[in-house]
Amino acid sequence: MTGAPESPEPDPVMQTALQRLPVPDHGAAFWSDLAAALDAEPERLVEPALAPGPVSAAARPTEVVPRLPTAGSTPDDPASRRLIPEELRSRANAALAAIAVTAMLLVLVAGVLLLRAHSGGV
Amino acid sequence: MSAPSPDDELVARARTGDRGAFEELLRGHDRRVRGLAFRLVTDRSAMDEVTHAAYLEAHRGLDRLRPGRDFGDWLYRIAYNSCVDWLRRTDGRANPPPAASGGSASEVVRAALAALPVNQRAAVVLVDAEGFEPRHAAKVLGVAPRTLASRLDRARAALHRVIGEELT
């Protein structure tokens, strides 16, 4: 299988055909609606990287292409971004705590057994 | 290191809350964003909807744009994601295009585009309609150049079949 070349040549037939689909302008209210929506957005904070002085690694901006919210989520609702829903969180925390206590007990018992075996062998 | 783009100063101002600078950025790239969006969702009101969502998302994410990264490329990527989300939500059927056969030239092209998978549609729109270099289009879409070339190849083959029959 040869596959497509990495840098394909322009295709004049396609270019001409796609020009036959003219791109319409926005609806009359588009820019005013957008301005109103931007007005409703929370106030922007000044970018920390623009402030004078060294920028810590933690404050350095990382590039993320924002994903749009999918149906069923609310963009400004922090709850929609949580991995574990509120109602499951206390149960999840309790399970984690139980696992941690069990692990500590196992380490303790193993330590005692090792010590006994060691002192018994000497 | 790449030369500073004319957008860099506007981006810096927009980050401090300068709404005029942000709108200037949007208007500077709006024609290409519309071109991409309209040819992906193939409907004017859907184009406005996805563009509106993309511009709001860009406003929210402006602080996460890495310094030196091209604002336009970043915005096209957001617009592309917005179109993909819209198509997923509506299953691409909210505004079915007219049947290819017997329509005007623009209807034939519109229907032929709408029949393509969205990733192939984006490849052919960016390269053949918007004039992006294939490597640049690959960067905008976040895929390897070979992947872009393969999608472009398949999209062109499919469009040649339909458009060739209808428009020649």
Characterization of the model:
The complex is a heterodimer of chains A (122) and B (168). Chain A is 44% helix and 0% strand. Chain A contains three helices and no strands. Chain A has helices at residues 12-19, 30-39, 86-121. Chain A is elongated, with a radius of gyration of 30 Å. Chain B has 168 residues and is mainly α. In chain B, 74% of the residues lie in helices and 0% in strands. Chain B has helices at residues 6-15, 19-41, 44-61, 71-90, 105-114, 118-129, 134-141, 145-167. In chain B, helix 2 crosses helix 3 (44-61), helix 3 (44-61) crosses helix 4 (71-90) and helix 6 (118-129) crosses helix 8 (145-167). The interface between A and B is large, with 47 and 71 residues.
By DSSP, the count of extended strands of chain A is 0
Helix content of chain A: 40-55%
**SSE ordering of chain A:** HHH
Shape of chain A: elongated
Helix fraction of chain B by DSSP (H/I, runs of at least 4): over 70%
- List the chains of the largest interface with their residue counts: A-B, 47 and 71 residues
Instruction: Summarize the main sheet of chain B.
Output: none
**Distance separating the two termini of chain B:** 47 Å
Structural class of chain A: mainly alpha
Helix/strand class of chain B? mainly alpha
- N-to-C order of helices and strands of chain B: HHHHHHHH
Low-pLDDT stretches of chain A: 47-61, 71-80
Mean pLDDT of chain B: 87
Task: Work out the helix count of chain B.
Answer: 8
Radius of gyration of chain B: 17 Å
Question: Count of helical segments of chain A?
Answer: 3
Q: How many DSSP E strands of chain B?
A: 0
Shape of chain B: globular
What portion of the residues of chain B fall into strands of 2 or more residues?
under 5%
